[in-house]
Amino acid sequence: MSVTQEYLAQALNQPAWYQRLGAYDWLFGLFVLIGVGYAYSDFRHLMDAYEVGILFASGAGLIAFGWFWKPMRGLTIAVALLSLAAIGLYGDELARGEQNFFLKFLISSQSAIMWMSALYVLATLTYWFALAIRSDFAGRTATAMTWCATTMGWVGLMVRWRESYLISHDVGHIPVSNLYEVFILFALITAMLYLHYERRYANRNLGAFVLTVVSAAVAFLLWYTFDRGAHEIQPLVPALQSYWMKIHVPANFVGYGAFALAAMIGVAYLLVERRPEGFLGRAMPTLTQMDDLMYKSIALGFAFFTIATVLGAMWAAEAWGGYWSWDPKETWALIVWLNYAAWLHLRLTKGWRGKPLAWWAIVGLFVTLFAFVGVNMFLSGLHSYGTL
Amino acid sequence: MSTEIRPTPRPRRLGDILLEFLGSMNLAISLLVVIGIASAIGTVLKQNEPYNNYKIKFGDFWFEVFRSLDLYDIYGSNWFLLLLGFLLLSTSVCVARNAPRMLHEMRTFRFNVQEKSLRAFHHHDEWHSHAPHAELVEAATALMGHAGYRVKGDRDGAVTTLAGLRGMAGRIGYILSHTAIVVICLGGLLDGNIPLKLAEFSGELKPELRDMPANEVPAISTLGTDNHSFRGSVSIPEGARANFVFLQLRDGYLKQELPFTVALQDFRIEHYSTGMPKSFESDLIIYDDQNPDAEPLHQTIRVNHPLIYNGYAIYQSSFSDGGSKLKLAAWSFDAPEAEPFIIDSAVNRSVDLETPRGDRRLELTEFKAFNIFPLPEGDPSGKKHRNYGPSITFKVRRPNGTAFEYQNYMLPIEQDGARYYLTGMRATPSDQFGFLHLPLDRKGSLERFMHFLARVHDRERLNAAIANETSSAVGDERAEQVNGAIAHLAELFLDQGIDALIAEMEEKVEPEQRQAALDAYIKVIQGVFGTLYLEVLEEEGIDLSQDVTAADTRFFDDSMTALSTLAPYGSPFYLELKSFEQVEASGLQITKSPGKDIVYLGSALLIAGIFFMFYLHPRKLWLRIVPDGDGSRLLLAGNSVRNHADFDAEFDKLRAQLRRASGAGDLGATADERGTAV
Ligand code: HEM
User: What ipTM does the predicted assembly reach?
Assistant: First the structure.
């Protein structure tokens, strides 16, 4: 008997990655390209060379992202269409936000963000409910709600971007400039990271934990809106008027989101670890899976956080005249970074696993939170435009 | 692991032990944590404040303790640098020890692994095939290659061993990222303050603590143009120039000379409607001092758009007043009839004045061309903000060194039709300003208020008014007593304010009668002052046979309010801003940081390294094909440094493929049975 040639041929003849892309993938690519082309032709005069670079790179990144993680395609298209609808309804009059029914109740940035908030909180409750009664249907509902919330959140940010230009041309800016805006970004990114792993591991029960931290962010956001009026769009101080903001801030929030995800997995891990065969333990992914997920999440967060910190240093060099000034925000970024570097070493070189690292990841979230909110609240420095 | 090469034991020398310690993971992790904590302390305790602030905050004892620990300048302290130095050493030793091994491992296909070792791997499988040896080798090479492995074969007699490596660039990731840490630290050190520390230690350099003009800074506090790295700042008024910057050093500063001169031709600032700065920029002219014949460089810089000039970077960092010229009129509260005293001065200057209350030094600290504040929601104007016009801030210092700070607005404010000068006062910089409203007469001047003030201070007129009020005949002893008491209260009111009046009441009058007594006194004082006020109106030529107009009545009420707080106001005069000529100053930051590019290079290495490490997992496979009866026995084993979960799946897939290709049928074994030979 010889080697089964036809099997070998079949095994070796697997299509290359681009051959595995379907019509939807190509259409999606085309859709993004058209969007980028439109943005370029219409807004070229408003952008400097770096911003044009960022535009094209984000387009390419979005296509790659959609191909790698398929649900991203639907999300992108839904967000684009809803945002375009809102922009169309606004025309060039901000006041329509109060007059037009759809804007007022659905897709003006403020309404969309309220929808996002409500849906995230509902999704959290539903995830817990699904976990408690072991209902697959409830679980799927929770996932659907999380998707809808995420869509509305992105629409909120996109429309807010446009609204800022409607207020006045010189006020216009990308909505990642203050604590209010980045909290939305944080909720969105954390939720999306979770959705990605949910699909990958085909287990919805971590959702209850992860969405809890998203809901906490939403609670803060609501307090911040109603108590402090933080949702008002403010113009940018000169130091923030830079293309660096467009890359530095989002990179940071991928990091924060991933760290938050890791911490919530840590919580789940600790609970399951106490009684692996208990009510909770039977529903959750295995301890090894959670441990692995925690590592992956921290690794991703660490990588992006490193990029963000380096970008931040480069921006600081351009805006403040020094790449490192030991400003509190900078210093806390370093602390967060050192903390997770220690975590990674414990795991990879000392072979630690499980419980102590889960605890460490949870403490890490508090360190991260301090870097992200606490510094703005309690310490003053060059980053003081983010004050509460 | 496959890399266990045990050296023959030999006596350990001190050097070895030291290297062992420096390269140890425990030290590395401890350093990461300790540096993290030390950095945190530096953010909680505000760094590099004036030392006096710390003294006030902690008291003398703790101030000294913290100072000896360098807690006011942690990031520049010796012990912090030492920690960073250890991290640098530790990482270098770590890389130096691991890199050669890793580089070797990346390139080396090891064939002479014992079967026993292969079977000891967590991932292994063994089965039998009837396929010819050569075909098996070919098929396995192809499949392993297809799965992303670099494959090499080795034939030893009838036995073939295939070895596969994948993701070995992850090892490069380790080397890149850890070398990067070293590179970044070195770059940072190059820009750090070690040379300054040494110079200070050897006594060549001493920070200057006193405020003085730049050209008077002594040589021992001056750094020459040969200093290779610094970060300093300087404020240049429009039309002025500078060829130096100041470096802050703990509670003092150093003067850093530059090989060029920066002249500020023009400074421009734009604002949003909220009054917040929108952009500011400076038109600079740079003269090369080493080459005076060279054409000067004209360049505009703004925030986020610095100028790089011969290795120096010039940043727009702030703005301030560059000595705006001010024309001021001082209205004395002590000599209200006198013409206001005109002062021509400028911001950042001080003027010595003689006043009836003694010498005072007027320090002009700030001029603002406008003051925009939000209006309450639903303001009838429909606007959200309002500009209250120019203001000045100044201090009035008494001979004993204490001072109150004042803020005066140039334009009167209008409230319900009446106009006032607004002047704020505070005793310490941490207080809010408390505001005094000085009423203005019909001409928009302080004159009437001053006349009124003069009258109430005139003892004779005051007494006459009191007598008039109590309608007592001169010589009546009891009435004189009453009048004396009223005069005393009026003076108390004028000299010490309404609060002093109330305090005195509280001392002298029983609690039950206090309110009634106070009301009575206020009524009397109102009456007395009202009489005096009417005299002022009469002097102005107002016909008093008509009723006093509402505006004039209101003026009286406002004047009384102002009088009641004039005493605590503290200044012997009101300073009216007559005119100004604004001069702005641009705050520049000038740096030379040769380490910057090194740090950037390190950062690029770091990012590349981290992605390599996280997303390229070194994996190894072995397939041994041994003739066995009429066919071959295949032994497959694999090993992954990390990401065992992912490797599980990958190994299973490859195993299934190899089994099928070798005709051993579909995978029978489950994960638990893995390793049982077929
Ligand atoms: C600021 C200092 C350091 C940082 C930021 C840092 C960062 C990292 C990171 C991010 C990883 C990768 C973890 C992963 O693959 O998930 C790693 C791995 C590692 N680090 Fe460090 N490290 C530092 C210092 C050190 C020092 C001083 C040593 C030596 C004692 C060391 C030894 C190692 C080793 C042996 C690995 C495992 C490499 C591998 O298995 O591929 N690191 N480090």
Answer: 0.91
